[in-house]
Amino acid sequence: MHAKIFSATTVGIDARQVEVEVDLSFGLIKFNIVGLPDKAISESKERIRAALKNSGLRPPDRLITVNLAPANLKKQDILFDVPIGIAILQACKLIDLNQDFINETLFLGELALDGEIRSVRGILSIAHQAIKSGKKRLIIPQKNTQEASLISGLEIIGVKNLVELIAYLRNEKQIKPEKSTFENFREDIKKHPLDFNQVKGQWQAKRALQIAAAGQHNLLFIGPPGSGKTMLAQRLATILPVMNFDEIIETTKIYSIAGLLDNKSLILHRPFRSPHHTISQAGLVGGGSNPRPGEISLAHKGVLFLDELTEFKRSTLEVLRQPLESKKVLISRANVSIEYPASFLLIAALNPCPCGYFGDRKKKCVCSSSQIMKYFNKLSGPLLDRIDLHVNVSSVNYDEIKNGDLKSKSSSEMYQDVVRAVRIQNNRLGSIKNAYLTSDKIEKYCILSSEAEIILKFAFEKLNLSMRGYHKILKIARTIADLSGSDRIEKNHIREAIMYRTLDKGFK
Fold first, then answer.
1. Do 121 and 259 touch, CB atoms closer than 8 A?
2. What would the pLDDT profile of 364-398 be if each residue is shown by its tens digit?
3. pTM for the predicted model, two decimal places
4. Domain end call among 152, 180, 208
5. Number of C-alpha atoms within 13 angstroms, CB side, residue 267?
6. Domain with 367 in it
7. Cα radius of gyration (the chain)
């Protein structure tokens, strides 16, 4: 006796369909699972036997062979308990599903010993792929229905236990499909609990963050402890363009794969990730025996904030160099290579010296020049080369604390300028932002006035700029010009851009 049921597994943030084939034959009573399952799936035979027995169903006294096809695809996570159990029941005629229903349906879920169907990871990715591949229906754990219902056009059937599922499949019980819920969240997309008007003073730092948001420029804050570097970085997401549907789904898929959605069904705001400096390479870029997304993928379409940058291991920071340019990370293992997206905006922060008070107007620095040099040498030149904006953040004085609200721009005001600049860039080159202009595009779109040309030439010679430093100034100036609505880069734009390249002299 033979039966086939369809399920799916995740590979990176994408999903692949899996055929669950079951064959029952006479012989020694045994339960075999083949098709490159991991250990957790191989152990599912004991859970399935107990779940069937405790749901009032007697497992067949047969040689049970389960094949998970395609055989060359590594199967991970406990997604297949339910489809294997249903395939066994179909093979021994305890349920009778017609072929059209089987072809249109994906089954997913983990079984508890008492027959409860537990939630699983990656449901959103599977639902997204199911609609593309022409499936009409998902039968999944009840706790996963809100997540799956974000994808419209699918019939989402949520079940609590095996008894309920079997009653549904035998037409003994009706279960209403979950309605699509994405529209319910549209009003929440624009809401954000943080605002830039909560930060006192720091006008230059706020301006730099606005430039970073408009042109996707990575940014480095240098300032003493308590100057507000973390507060500023946390509010960057409030002025980034609102996420569109594809970005929301893509980002939420990453969190679904990582098992981090909890009670949230959507990632509506651009992520802000701030890993501790003790994080490992695998924690930062992703990895493990069953590869999972790292912090750089969890920051996809959002902000990765690295505070106390010099405290991170140098080898850990070096793995950022390739994802910063390619916007993706490839994790290779013996049997599989998985690619995760990693398009994030890097905001880093560090103290100006080991004691933290070099150049501070309130407290005297006690570090020697050699100590300061050794401190900065913890960071590699190639990594700093990938950071466009270098911003000095000074301590806030009393008058700024008391009167800051009178001058401080709100996030909504800053956001309007950013959206206008992003729209200009989209009209110019589609999704390519100024930070990623190639040399030929720089020549074409970074047109300088004669006065700006003179200033840039003087800076090039005075600061001994490299070609890379020269291009970075032009790209920053292009973003500043976009924020002011200017087609041409003027002298004030180029002056401001040069101001944000304070480390060029020390790191070329």
1. yes
2. 899 998 998 898 888 888 888 889 999 998 877 76
3. 0.85
4. 180
5. 26
6. 196-436
7. 28
